[in-house]
Specification:
single chain, alpha/beta
């Protein structure tokens, strides 16, 4: 993206923020209310949307919650974008036509996670030049299997990003970064929590994405039942003798959590999901 385009996109973001802030001015929604009702009650999904939309909030990865890095004006933008506030559970499913079971036929993706369907969709979108970028979650090379949201722009990067990380990922932050960098057609891959955040930001009266009129976003939701806290789960695996640097794949199937040193081989270790409940995010309950 050119410097001029990026600067224009940032100005659009600032305009949108100021516009929504003026709409919400005088309301009782605030960061304090967000902390009280969502974070401290344990229903926070750690999607990072609140920090992604506010210039004085950052996501604290150490404790898994937003933190103030400047003066809060009490505008309530963070509260209004959160997928767990003012939400109608009956509307979360949305409309659907039918269901399919799919497996990829792309050689580089065969043997991927659960048929490689999501990776195949991304490859198609890049091949047909239908998107400029995609938001995905990859693993941190310095901290094996810790999630890192990424902006990718090629088919090869999509293939490299294949596989599941069973932890919360702040993908909405990467999405907002992509918009500020002036990517205009974006595929967004996320769990239902993150998809709900994006939908709310598009459809609610004070939604940030509602005012980015030139940002076209295709959401691709991942099936999800449980998300685990890596800072608790991974030390447990290590105490069990698992070398996370050697793990090539993690998978959940038939009520068990499997770890593989060889993607095409047998799991090196398997655990019943109910035995790992103590490491599960409270929001999943």
């Amino acid at each position: 993206m050119t410097e001029n385009n990026t600067e224009t996109a940032r100005k659009k973001y600032e305009y949108s923020f100021d516009y929504i802030q003026s709409k919400l001015e005088g309301s009782k929604d605030s960061f304090g209310k967000l902390m009280k009702e969502i974070v401290r009650t344990g229903v926070c999904t750690e999607c990072g949307t609140c920090a992604a939309v506010c210039p004085v909030l950052e996501w604290d990865h150490l404790v898994g919650q937003p933190k103030l890095v400047g003066k809060c004006t009490g505008c309530g933008i963070c509260y209004n974008q959160c997928p767990r506030t003012i939400t109608d559970p009956n509307e979360l499913m949305g409309e659907f036509k039918t269901g399919y079971v799919a497996n990829t036929n792309i050689p580089e993706v065969i043997g991927g996670q659960d048929g490689g369907t999501v990776t195949s969709l991304l490859c198609y979108l890049f091949d047909e030049h239908l998107i400029d970028a995609a938001i995905v979650t990859m693993t941190n090379p310095e901290h094996p299997w810790f999630p890192v949201p990424q902006i990718i722009t090629t088919k090869d990067e999509a293939i490299k990003a294949s596989g599941s990380v069973y932890c919360h990922s702040q993908t909405v932050e990467a999405l907002m970064d992509a918009i500020r960098e002036d990517y205009r057609s974006i595929a967004f891959v996320g769990t239902p929590c993150n998809i709900s955040a994006v939908n709310k930001m598009f459809n609610s009266p004070a939604g940030m994405l509602k005012y980015f009129m030139r940002a076209n976003i295709l959401t691709i939701g991942l099936f999800c039942m449980d998300s685990f806290a890596p800072e608790a789960l991974y030390p447990f695996f290590e105490r069990e003798g698992i070398d996370l640097k050697k793990v090539e794949k993690m998978d959940i199937s038939k009520g068990k959590f499997h770890l593989y040193y060889d993607k095409d081989g047998e799991p090196v270790k398997s655990y019943k999901i109910k035995d790992l409940d103590k490491f599960k995010s409270s929001s999943c309950n």
